[in-house]
Amino acid sequence: MSAIPFHPFRSRVRMPVRAALRLAPLGDIWHKPALSGVAALAVVLLALLLAGRLDLTLYASAGAMCALYGHGLPYAARARALGWVVLGMLAGTAAALVTAALTDSVAVRVAVAALLAGLHKAVCDATRIGPPGNVVLTFIAASAAFVPDQRLADVPVHVGLGVLGGLVAWAVGMAPGLLRPDGPERVAVARALEATARLLHARDADPGRGKGGDAQQERHAAATAVNAAWQTLLRAGDQRAGLRRLLVRAESVAVTGVGGRGGDAGTLLAWAHELRKGRPVPEAPVCDAPTQAAEQAELAGIAAEQAERAGPAGGAAERVARKRLARSPIALLARWWRVVVMVAGGAALAGWVSMALGVGRPYWAVVTAAAVFAANTTMSWSRALQRVVGNLLGVALFTLVVLVTRWGAVALVVAVLVMQFVTEAAITRNYWLGSVFVAPMAMLMTEFAGAEPVSALVADRWLDTCLGAAAGLLACVLLPDRRAAARVRDGLERLERLVGEPLTGGRVARDRLRAALVELREAADIAAGEWWSAALPQERIAAAERAGHHRLAELST
């Protein structure tokens, strides 16, 4: 394909309101972080309640809140990820506590909290740790930076409480593996099967045989789900042969969009249901000989790749890669400098304005600004709107709940745990709905250190929310991602190059092509929402995606 230059005109970006507030279906695994978060937090709060030291809640909950992370990872990978999350959480908390002990300057404390917010955002985006991302880390660290009467000698004890909470979080996060050690892999494969079934339904409903917008979206969703499932299974080692066979069948159907390969939509959905219910892994029926041979060859290639990775050479290469990554924090910061500067700048601006207005808790503005930043300007606008709407309703809910929580410490603990549980369900439907319960929970957390006038808490929260949202959006507008269009161009050229290569390479070629399709669509979606972005060659992108899916089908025959 001939190269078509990008047009140097600014793309139009719409700031939708209705779409930003629309409710999505309930998340499929919302109950897992909900139950884990409540269990870890309950252990911590009940222990402090019995000890009569609920004033230490902030420090212990710093570790306990880590139980919200890693629920999409296989348990071996989850064990490592949770360890790193706890370490990152406690490092940020320790830095904030030292700052609080060394200075009474609100401006300095805001600056430190804002810098930590920028680092949290960059690291979470770079590692793709997943929800709840940087927000919980920033909330705990920013709160710790404003602990009153903090002494340097107390920092080790307070961080030690965080370590104990982190151990509880790690144990809670790993405990389900004792009952269903392949749970995350089952969910990932089930999602791929369900996405492939939706693709078949879209093709059946499309008289153009899958060339319409809905079918194109479902094709991308199926490719994304299959790609994510492969990443999950490969992390899990070589113990999931049955799941791999189902995923290979889903991949065969996804790339062709035809259900005649032993996997019609109804069958795929039935398999997904069996996986989610923890029942025995279904057996894919035998299909036509060429397809069966291709699937067996792919499974054999996967097994050989796993054996190579597990061998001395593969292990040595992996250790070398880890050492290089550990030695290159500067390279990581260089790549993510814009995120650090944008988040830290917006958070600091919000906190300093809040301080100038005499608000008692400027760290709430810091957290709100950090929570606003998303992949592009349009998504950041949506997140800001959701945050403002959710917090407005949340402070109203707080004024009702606080009447009950002030009956006693037990009522306060129960209210916080209930809010934590409901938040995880609500936030999967829309961020604003989750914020309705996050806001009162954050306000109730301040009650552990002592009751304060409700009117002051409400005024501080509402003002800081508005300031944080405004400052976050301002930073997004002033520091747009000017490389967004360049990443689309690079992804487009990579996909076109892969499409033009000979039909060789087997599974490796399919993996590269599928990853290129997913990356191009993600880059295009992000760039389309950036207000200072070159106009995208949409026709060329669509043509490359069609050619990529066609070539993917050829590689699977």
Automatic annotation (TrEMBL):
Which protein are we looking at? Integral membrane bound transporter domain-containing protein
Q: Name one Pfam family in it.
A: FUSC_2
Cellular location(s): Membrane
Q: Which domain of life is it from?
A: Bacteria
Indicate the segments forming the Integral membrane bound transporter domain, all copies.
Answer: 349-474
Q: What is its main location?
A: membrane
Keyword Transcription listed: no
Looking at the UniProt entry, the stretches that span the membrane are 34-51, 89-117, 129-147, 159-179, 336-357, 363-381, 393-419, 431-450, 462-480
Q: What membrane topology was assigned to this protein in its record?
A: Multi-pass membrane protein
What Gene Ontology cellular-component terms does the record carry?
membrane
Q: Which InterPro entries match?
A: Memb_transporter_dom (IPR049453)
Query: What are the alphabetically sorted keywords of the record?
Result: Membrane, Transmembrane, Transmembrane helix
Which classification does the entry list for the species?
Bacteria, Bacillati, Actinomycetota, Actinomycetes, Streptosporangiales
